[in-house]
Automatic annotation (TrEMBL):
Coiled coil: none annotated. It comes from Rhodoplanes roseus. 3-amino-2-oxopropyl phosphate binds at N11, R22, G199, G220, H221. Catalyzes the complicated ring closure reaction between the two acyclic compounds 1-deoxy-D-xylulose-5-phosphate (DXP) and 3-amino-2-oxopropyl phosphate (1-amino-acetone-3-phosphate or AAP) to form pyridoxine 5'-phosphate (PNP) and inorganic phosphate. GO terms for biological process: pyridoxine biosynthetic process. Homooctamer; tetramer of dimers. The active site is at H47 (proton acceptor), E74 (proton acceptor), H198 (proton donor). This is Pyridoxine 5'-phosphate synthase.
Amino acid sequence: MTASPLRLGVNVDHVATLRNARGGRHPDPLRAAEIAVAAGANGITAHLREDRRHIRDDDMERLKRHLTVPLNMEMAATSEMVEIALRLKPHATCLVPERREERTTEGGLDAAGQRAELEPRVKALCAAGIRVSLFVAPDPVQLDAAVAVGAPVVELHTGAWCEAIAAGEAAAARAELDRIVQAARGARARGLEVHAGHGLDPLTAETIAALPEVVELNIGHWLVAESVFDGLEGAIRRMLAAMKRGRGGAPARN
């Protein structure tokens, strides 16, 4: 199949993590988002966690008010978060698993096991005109569940693959990448829009960008960490260049 243009969503969570380490308002996630957009990002992602450990409610409100590109609100599939999303009306929501003791989102959402809870919440968000994606493991069972609950988009969890590469576990990395490839094809065959994210750096993003089914990557930690050395604009431009190489030169668009 012909590859569609590939979008980059920049996650600004860890700009807020750095701010919250000292308190106050610096560095400001909104300023980071504006720099990201100027550097070529197609959208901004922010995770409003239940414990508000990084992004806060006022961050979401300011992002929604000032951004000129789509805002993707990552959130747990809870009544509280659905109510906030329905009030805020971001362009999109990505439903993720969330545990208070985790350092970052670990694993994909168990859409198959939580179908009864997810279905009415996905329905409410979609009815409000909010694009809904489910952050899931590259597993056919979870893809079927996404279709069953009415989510139009899945974001495939690339973390296990990236971790296997970092650990030098070549066989495991090959197996995980094959799961991602098959899941991307399977999701597209089921009529789902396919995104990917978690743990990506330029090398791994370039590989995922070569999958024609994937139309959006959401990346945060590497960009924010690398900005210490290269500036946020420079880090984003490096990522976009890697994505373009992987895609065979196809330009990105909103």
